[in-house]
Amino acid sequence: xxxxxFIIAGLxxxxxxxxxxxxxxxxxKKEDQKNPYDYKLNELKKTAGKQIAxxxxxxxxxxxxxxxxxACGAGxxxxxxxxxxxxxxxxxxxxxxxxxxxGFASSLAMDKKGDFFIGMQDHVEVYSPEGKLLKKWxxxxxxxxxxxxxxxxxxxxxxxxxxxxxxxYDHEGRLINRIGEKDPEKKVPGFIVPSPxxxxxxxxxxxxxxxxxxxxxMEQFSYDGTMNSAWGEASMAIDGxxxxxxxxxxxxxxxxxxxTSEKGxxxxxxxxxxxxxxxxxxxPSAFTEGTRGLDLAVDSRDRIIVLDPERKQVRIFVKK
Amino acid sequence: MPGRxxxxxxxxxxxxxxxxxxxxxxxxxxxxDEKSCSYGFDCSGxxxxxxxxxxxxxxxxQMVWQLDMTxxxxxxxxxxxxxxxxxxxxxxxxxxxxGYCDLCGGYFKPGTKTLTTAxxxxxxxxxxxxxxxxxxxxxxxTIDEELCIGCGKCVKGCGAFGNGSLQLQxxxxxxxNCNECSIARSxxxxxxxxxxxxxxxxxxxxxxxxPKETAKKxxxxx
Lengths: 320, 222
Known about the structure:
Chain A is mostly beta strands. Chain A has one helix at residues 2-33, and strands at 54-61, 67-72, 78-89, 95-104, 107-110, 116-119, 124-127, 133-136, 146-151, 155-160, 165-170, 175-179, 200-203, 207-212, 217-221, 227-231, 249-252, 258-262, 267-271, 277-282, 296-298, 304-308, 313-319.
């Protein structure tokens, strides 16, 4: 009887030892895969679904090798600027033409006639609606990198990441003044732009707004360079601007609301004309991780047009 | 016996002259050989680089391990799998790319309320990243290599939210240059590679060899 108990106990012990060995053999591999220093960025990208007020209605690919800038013009035509040219699309995404040039368009805007003002890294080139070069403005500086252009009835505003300044030109390319440069005497702190995303836009055809990304703020300037107002807050939360330098791009809806895009946590959002968070257009899950340079445009029907350089697509979002 | 003495003198003078000639010939040959290095001691592309005995070529033939930052996914294995303790992989700062941000994604934990150097605000598990005020609103970030364990947390944060100026690199004053690198063996992105000892770094987004347009493009891509 005693011998039987010993044999059974021995067998049980053997089974336990085998189970432990097998578990150790297989689970140890899983342990090796774990990163004890993991920085979980996905946790920061979670978004409440009820805050998403837009749907993606349409997307289409562009034929350019690299894409940097987007604009919307008469008839809601969509213009995409990038390496060696500009592509033109109808509002439903059908190709409507293109024209080429040397270098790449780092920024793009149109005037009422339909002439293109294209920032070519360190200078501006003006093209007719048919794509004929009308004028090449003087180069600003070898360090210049023109990240944004806006055209009003009387002026052309250019944002220069390289010099951290905004320039006001007339339509012929004559420089009128520089805006927002650091001036300790006038207590102007200057633009803080750590990375080459430095956007500007005009609201109601007269209000100049600039994204001071290093301060995570949207700033409004008079044409003489006086700063009138600002809003914005650095935060990983949905109502703030994340990372070191955001919003990377912005545009305006017709009621004066701000549409902003960010890098780091890739998202497109809407703020009221006073700068209060309203809703999400596109959450981080809508973009490939690491996407940067989500340039924005808005058409006559307030459809939000997003340039996605990672997917080389134009993506159009409409209100639910 | 003046004839023999004269003969020996002549022989000695002749010998000295011949030795001097040989010596100067060797010097001229050597200097001609060095001048003939049309690559300016940059051995890449030189057809003689495998047999050349110039010191630069010898150094170029010696290979060392390095981490290719274009492939690195910051998995943390550089910290845990190196035979050295702490790891020979360290965070390196490419200052030319840095934005000197007040709110640095590589330094601060997400959701930090005050941008101070308080321990609870820091992303680095070993306090190896140092923050120093330069002028409003710019801050300089440096790495204390004695404390850095090469975990890549700051690299991931900087890459996601900043310009990606914080990058992991093998420090060759610490690396044992094992034939079979234990990090390379376990690297899921196969980012470890052998590079010539005279060009030992593989930092992303930098390099004097980049043409202006490519460098600007890289810059534009952040």
